[in-house]
Structures are given as structure tokens and as C-alpha cells.
Design a protein that fits this description.
The protein is an alpha/beta fold. 47% of the residues lie in helices and 9% in strands. The protein has twelve helices and eight strands.
Length: 326
Amino acid sequence: MNGRVTASESRSERRPSRQINVVLRSASPPLVSTAVPERDPVPSPSPLPQHGLFQEIQKELDQLVGLDQIKELVYEIYALLQVAQMRSEIGLLSGGHVFHMIFKGNPGTGKTTVARIIAKLFQKMGVLNKGHLIEVERADLVGEYIGHTAQKTRDLVKKAIGGILFIDEAYSLARGGEKDFGKEAIDTLVKAMEDHKNQFILILAGYSDEIDFFMCSNPGLHSRFPIQMDFPDYNMDQLIQISELMAKERDYILMPQSMMKLREHLQVEKESQLHAFSNARYVRNLIEKSIRNQAVRLLNQYVAGNPSKLELMTLRPEDFKLVGKQ
């Protein structure tokens, strides 16, 4: 974990994670090299094994649509922590790992949800004593006069001690140039990462290109974020699956014609908005709007009586008034 880690690395580059999986299945901690010869089959990290402390985390990960590489990387972090504990118990060095992270991806791709799951994982494994998530943006960090920004940033770091400080659209801190107070926030964060080493974890999130630009704004940033996760856009089948899950969570069902209409609309919006498409967030807005439309339709349709349970649950094509952006 000392080097730069990305969720998009090839399977051959992630082979050490699989070696970790082999260690976890061993009856006792190995006293010699755990390298696996190329001729031996290497167990795949997917499906992931169900270790005791990881079962609840695994359950939450399984509820997420897609994100297979993200799920594997979360398990690699768990495996590293588990093996570090084994090493410590027999007197081997096991510390020195840095877990500050970069989350790259468009809106609605699951970054905040994954951050909450990681916070819970670190709390269960004893890395963080609280495991809470403080989610902030530029306005929460940047003040209005010299010195104000540093104090606001330090206060938020203090609140995040024992947990995770999650900065969404972090690149906005570097947009104003040298005289902007955002630079003061960056400098304060870098110092806090040194002053409060291992006491909190900082996650910076945002669009891929903008985050790359942001990382160049301070020479000390790159080396402080060894873990990088790429959150890809959902494909069309995944977006439909997400819409069905969102409806089901609210005790609604989508008619086949409704799903067809939704798919056609999402395809158009996804192609027209390009990088601005908000993925699951956009789908959620569509589902919630269709539920409101259904309520109006049912009240107008059933003036003298009540609709059946099936009618109350069903979202029909006419409930999806998909004109323009939602």
C-alpha cells in the first residue's frame, strides 16, 4: 500500500492481492515467503470469501450494482489489515500503511456510499476508533478572509478525528489560483495529514480530469494518497437494474413498458450529457418524479373509491413524463 494503487489495474498487476487471499486461508501465519508460483492456480478474489469481520461489509457491497473492481479493492484493504494483525501477533513489522484515498468518477457512481462502507470497515478493524464520515465541500472549508480558511479546515479535521473526512468536488479548492483561499485549505489539509497521522483518513472525490489537475496544485499531495479508486459510469443494463431496485425499496414495481420507456430516455440523456450525466442520482430523480405522477393519476382516476394494492404499487408508462431533464 506504499505505492499508488488504482482500482483499474490489470489482473496481473493485482496479483499481490490474490497472494493475500491465499494467506488468509492458511491455518497458521506463514514464516516464509508467500509467493505463489505461476504454475499454481491463484484463487480469484471474486466471489470474495466470507471472513467473520468482513461479512457485514460484504453484505453492503453486494447490494451495490456493478463496481466489481471497487469491491475487490475494498477486500484487498481488509486482507491487508487482517494479515498485518497476523504479522503483529508473531512479532513482525505490520505498521506504516497510509490509507488516504482519491475517488475519481462522475456524480451518482457510488463514491459517497463506498466511503461510508470503508469507514465502517476501518472501524471494525481498529484503524479508526469511531468510523464516522464527515462529508464536506469547498464552502465548508474556505473562509472569507485571511486565516479564516485555516481555522475552518482545522475545525473540520478535528471533527473527523477517528473517522473519515470526505471532500466532494475537491478540485474546486484549486480553481482560484495562488491568491484564492482554497489554496490555504489545501495547505492546511496537508499539514493536518502529517500532524494527525493515522488519526483520520482523508478521501478526495470528484471528476477524473479535475482531480488530476487538483493533485498538481500542491507538490505534497501525490505521495499522500496511495489508494486511488476509479468509479466508472453505469452501463444501460445497470441503470435499469438500479431503477428497479430503487422502486422495490419503496414498494413499487415497474411495468415492462415502463422499463422500456425508461431505457430509451436514459440512453438519450446519457449520450447527450456525456460527462455531466449523474448516473444513479439521475435515475433516483426519475423514480421519485414518477411516484409523484402516479399519485396524481390515482387520485384523479379513483374519485369514488380506493385503488387496489397492485395499482398502488405499479408505475405505468404514463407516470414517466420524460420531457427534458429531470
